[in-house]
Amino acid sequence: MGRLKLGDFKNNHSKKPTANCSRSKAFMHKLLFFFILWLGIVAFVPAVFAQKKYTISGTVKDATTGETLIGATVKLQEIQENGAATNAYGFFSLTAPEGDYNLAISYIGYETVTQPIKLNKNAQVNILLLAGNSLKEVSITGNKRKNENVESPQMGLTKLDLSQVNNVPVIFGEKDVLKTIQLLPGVKSTGDGNTGFYVRGGGADQNLILLDEAVVYNASHLFGFFSTFNSDAIKDVNLYKGGMPAQYGGRLSSVLDIKMLDGNDKDYTVQGGIGLIASRLKIEGPIVKDKGSFMVSARRTYADLFLKLSPDSTTRGASLYFYDINAKANYHIDDKNTIYLSGYFGKDVLGLKDNFGTNWGNQTATLRLNHIFNNKLFLNTSLIYSDYNFIVQSFTTNNNFKVTSKIRDFNLKEDFQYFINNNNTLSFGINATQHTISPGDIQSNDNSSVNPKTIQSRHGFEASAYISDEWHATDKLNLLYGLRLTTFSLLGPGTINTYDANDALVSSTIYGSGKVVKSYFNPEPRFSASYKVNDLSSVKASYNRNTQNIHLLSNSTASSPTDLYVMSSNNIKPGISDQVAIGYFKNSANNMFEFSSEIYYKWMQNQIDYKNGAQLIANQDVESQLVYGRGRAYGLELFLKKKYGKFNGWIGYTLSKTENLFDAINNGNYFAATHDRIHDVSVVGIYKLTERWTLSGTFVYGTGNAVTYPHGKYMVGGLTSFYYPDRNSDRLPPYSRLDLGATLEGKQHKHFHSSWTFGVYNAYDRKNPYSVTFRDDPDDKTRTQAVKTSLFGVIPSVTYNFNF
Amino acid sequence: MKIKYQLAVLLFISFFAASCKKVIDLHLSDSDQQLIIEGNVTDVNTTQIVTISKSVSFNSTNSFPAVSGATVKIVDGNGNIRNFVERSPGTYASSAPFTGRYGQKYTLQVQLNGQTYSANSVMPVQRVNLDSLSENEQTFGNSTTKTVAVQYQDPSNQVNKYRFILTVNAIQAKDVFVRDDQFSDGRHVEALLYQDDIKIKTGDKVEVEMQCIDPTIYTYWYTFSQQSNNFDSTTPSNPPNNFDGKVLGYFSAHTTQIRTVTMP
After folding, report:
1. Which of A35, A526, A560, B249 gives a 20 to 30 Å CA spacing to B97?
2. Long-range contacts of A772-780 (CB under 8 A, 24+ apart)
């Protein structure tokens, strides 16, 4: 009966992926009703009919470091073909009838453990896995290689293998998860040295970037040349391009979930690296052996130290660096409770003595408590702080000022996981976030050309609740389905202006503290299913709706620290995206090769751009400067990955289109988004040449960005002016680049290990365009010429890494 | 404020990126010829000028076809009509000199081939005085850049928008300089005219024209200035103007004042 109902739900669903608001509301209620009914059946019917069952639960950890292992496979060999995966805290729960079993625990890169279990009562086990000898190919005999990408109902998910990240060559030798993500199909960058990324046509601000659950607003250092994520401190990276599980919400196009290392709870270790422009150091160790540990990882660029050697005093007075610190501590209070505290602090500083200074950075802090109620119910409570601010300062006497801008979140989350039975895992929870945006505070002295001014802060409260079930319906059919409900309220205090469609001021109202200015409610259904054609291949389908209430105002491709954030309001509606995707997944050669192809279509509503000549910084009336439109994106992604062996890597290809529509632009016709990239190819290869040498290479090719070129010219005010017929109707020349890398492992010492990493960025010196500008030909003033600016030629790099 | 930020980007790029510029060939399709109307009314007693021309394709030389045979007049808010005569092809001059009045609304009307194009512009309520010009030097690496700064007292409690035209040794700098008083209302302002078109040297004769312009024209020139901005890759667009039909150019009633200085 339960399955019948779910079948109804699925059919309804696929018929109306783009249902309009009022229709979808009624549909939602119906859906919710069936959902609750279904859960009741799943939860209670088996309890009535089933034979005596017991549950075995526990945590899987690395035997050497005590790091919990996320996504390890745990199964009772006698009765399960696939088993269960450990959750984000290494926890698992399995239920089976009374009996004798072999419990097998496996994880990529680790030796499989098989342990006999006599199941005659509920049991708890903690399992330690030994990392395979990294210098040899990991032994996998005796255990079937994992075929999760075929098996799992999840679509659009890429788990980044950090050992691969460490081998992928990158600019200046700074390994970087965001740069590696840009090498995946469906993920695009906009050119040289930019960490901003665009997932399936979504904007760079439509990615939910989480570091230990805290939102990172600006994930780039130095205008996007480096990301804020120091690979040394990272344990796990998951990118969801579609089919997002219901526990994630708040951004339209993707979720990048990054988890920091917990720290070694057995032994003290030090790891570091010295590179051309940055150095890094990580220290970790036990607080109380086997009970608690800490990890601190820091890095700083020191290119600016060379400025100090300059003979010129202005250059000596220039500052140009960034640093960041990741820190984490955890303590295992007892078998039921573990506490974690983690934080990130990063800052970029750029300036010229006596002239100007600017700095910006993110701060996040996450306090978490894992509580195991019983062997089936797991709760994580998180208290999260997240902050991004920038300061621009001018020191000259007549133009003295300091502008501060800030966005800050406090977030409380309760995430439950209920392991109902081996076929159903239920996730549900609530989330409450308080947002504060302080767009601008200007300070200046009396002689300055600039007035002191404070732009009113805006306060928002976002609350959501979700429920989601992963259901192994049959041996062939797996489902992941859920619903997320989100409310957002813009709250006083403040003077709130309302603008009409022509951005003329209609009314201005003063709201008291905590008074609701405007509220939005959005249900977000999420659905993803896989159907196994055979052991090595499956077809999948997904639909998801996401909404977004924090919007970035930027039409620039470069990551700018002064980008401004606004909340949904009486003028700005929440962004909404609906995505449908279908895919075919196939593994071969004992799961050594993974192949996937996905087709997606995405509709985006309430997209924001700003008017020509808009003044955004420190503008109280910024909402009068905006225009609203919609977007659509569709494409095909092909991905072939070789996971193991001396040679491994992947090839990705994307064929796609991303278009926007704004009434005021292009006569109200669809036009290509700047990051629209029709063809996108990336190839990553890593080859283990000898015990000590590993070689790597990446190649990327992509259609040039959509740009607006002048097609005519005329004269006004004595200046040559350009005529632009259509928005983004031209293309920059195609982008391509080859990067090469090599790693030399040092000789193995008992307590000390070192390696050298060499890299060549842009090996064939391709002058990829950063921009094309137009000017009068200096040799013939009656002619106009196009000038291409490229940022990087060949850039070699070398880094020395060590750990002890 | 934006300029300070752009300096930061420049500093960064000059250090990290071996940025290189290269002239490239683009095969840009020809666009339809567009009509350009440029009209100005200033606060000095002079023959006011309106020019009408056409655009050319990107690859053509800069000889822009003049448009003759238009009927041109400017009507002020009190209904006074000033007729214009075609002095040379495409250049229309007021039949008598006149002075633009502060706070007065002017309407430019152009009739051409049975079509009427009109635009409104309001002369700002006062001419803000350009107090002085000064020189500002910046040294970075081995090079010293001389930049001209303008000084003026912004009137408080009114919206003021400015445009500056920089001429060095009788050659107009290609950069468009605009400024408003959103952050400097009522302040004594020193504004630097940053540009990299002309390298200014000691002894150069520098001339700056200061115009007080209306808000629509400010947006026009501000958008114009972003066309050549390669720091933040803003999508360029045709500057929005004050004409009611599909025509490029602008009509501006503005004040004018010129100061000159010999670079120390």
Report:
1. B249
2. A772/A707, A772/A709, A772/A732, A772/B24, A772/B26, A773/B228, A773/B230, A774/A709, A774/A710, A774/A722, A774/B228, A775/B174, A775/B228, A776/A720, A776/B62, A776/B174
Q: Left (φ > 0), alpha (ψ -120 to 50) or beta: where does B171 sit?
A: beta
Q: Enumerate the residues of chain B whose CB falls inside 8 A of the CB of residue A786.
A: 23-26
Q: How far apart are the C-alpha atoms of A515 and A546, rounded to whole Å? A: 27
Half-sphere exposure of A368 (CA within 13 A, CB side): 26
Chain A 452-491, residues with CB within 8 Å of chain B CB atoms: 453
Contact A556 B250 (CB under 8 A): no
B1·A618 Cβ contact <8 A: yes
List phi, psi (to 5°) of A161.
Answer: -85, 110
Beta pairing class for A53-62 and A123-129:
parallel
- What does the block give as tokens for A83? 């088993």
Backbone φ, ψ for residue A45 (5° rounding): -60, -50
**Pairwise CB contact (< 8 Å): A352 & B140:** yes
Scanning every residue of chain B, which has its alpha carbon at the shortest distance from the alpha carbon of A398? B190
Which residues from chain B sit within 8 angstroms of residue A452, using beta carbons?
none
pLDDT tens-digit readout, A13-67: 333 333 344 445 555 565 566 566 655 555 555 544 556 888 899 999 999 889 9
The rounded distance, in Å, linking the Cα atoms of B236 and B231 is 12
Per-state percent for chain B, helix, strand, coil, to nearest 5 = 10, 45, 45
Q: From start to end of A120-217, where are the E strands?
A: 123-129, 157-160, 187-188, 198-199, 207-211, 214-215
Residue A304 main-chain phi, psi, to 5 deg: -65, -20
Alpha carbons within 13 A on the beta-carbon side of A191: 27
Strands B188-193 and B143-153, how do they pair?
A: antiparallel
Please state the ipTM of this predicted complex. 0.92
